[in-house]
Amino acid sequence: MTLKLTQFSHGGGCGCKIAPAVLSRLLAASPLQSVPADLLVGVETADDAAVYRLNDSQAVVATTDFFMPIVDDPFDFGRIAATNALSDVYAMGGRPLFALAVVGMPLDKLPEDVIRQILAGGESICAEAGIPIAGGHSIDAPEPIYGLVGIGLVHPQRVKKNAGAKAGDALILGKPLGIGILSAALKKDALSDEGYAEMIRWTTKLNVTGALLAELPGVHAVTDVTGFGLAGHLLEICRGSGVAAQVEFARLPLIEEAVRHVRAGTFTGASGRNWASYGSAVLPAPTFEEWQQKIVTDPQTSGGLLVACAPESADEVLAAFRADGFERAAVIGAFAAGAPCVTVV
User: Fold this and answer.
1) Which residue among 14, 16, 126, 309 is the active-site one?
2) Calpha distance 133→97 (Å, rounded)
3) For residue 328, which of 170, 203, 173, 169 has the smallest C-alpha distance?
4) Could you tell me where the beta strands, DSSP code E, fall in the chain?
5) Of 177, 140, 179, nearest to 268 (Cα)?
6) Would residue 309 show up in a list of annotated catalytic residues for this protein?
7) How far is it, in rounded angstroms, from Cα 181 to Cα 108?
8) Mean of the pLDDT values across residues 78-98?
9) pTM score over 0.90
């Protein structure tokens, strides 16, 4: 019998994340803390990472991300988890310096060789990013958990927050949507070899373009699309920036096999939890079909960068993405003055 990593976890990838509304309630009771002047990014707008200014030309970017298996292949699981964790450094406009491993494994259920392959997958992505894994922490856990603490550097004046979008800005997405749907199909043994290859291609592609976007003055805000889905992470930009956003569904880059599966009724439980968490802040078109709702709420694991930029900078941003191999990057909508909300047309 072939061992399947996903059989040991109740949820996989960024679909494991606590739903946005639940997380907000949990954090609402946290006491307000004094914030040092050098803490450039903290918990104010649910941004991708913390940023602390060291001096006039350097700020440290710190983040952590870990989850349970989204695929059965241990090497691929390690690669996906590491790519996803480092994405938060790139989303802030930073360049990674080093990483620490976060490891929890059911030692009575998983052979040591399987665990070693997971670690090797993470190491391979860090090598691709040009950084070492300099340590970490491990525990014996009931479900497999792997991820990284990512540490990077950015110029204090070039930090790209998820707040800062302006009315009139173009909205650009770097990777196609549908990873959560593909993962649900995989659990049903319904994913084709081509679909699996597409899933691995995008979930293991580092969002390195984020470091270049930090150099572009026309880029006003950046985040990455992960467990809360496109609508959820876009809503965070809107709330942090005090603007509204409109998404044109027809312009969304989508993974074709994911569209086929979601039209046939395959999607994740996290999709429904996401939709319930948005409330009236996400407004679908009257003709919106259920499968389209599942697309914009689909939890992305190691998803693409979501960029707000001046409209005259859109071509430059797209060129930067495509130079790094993100040929599916596309303008998917725009921001406008108004109460923070996301409208999908």
Assistant:
1) 14
2) 10
3) 173
4) 39-41, 50-53, 59-67, 95-105, 133-140, 145-154, 170-173, 219-224, 244-247, 282-284, 305-309, 330-336, 342-344
5) 179
6) no
7) 31
8) 97
9) yes
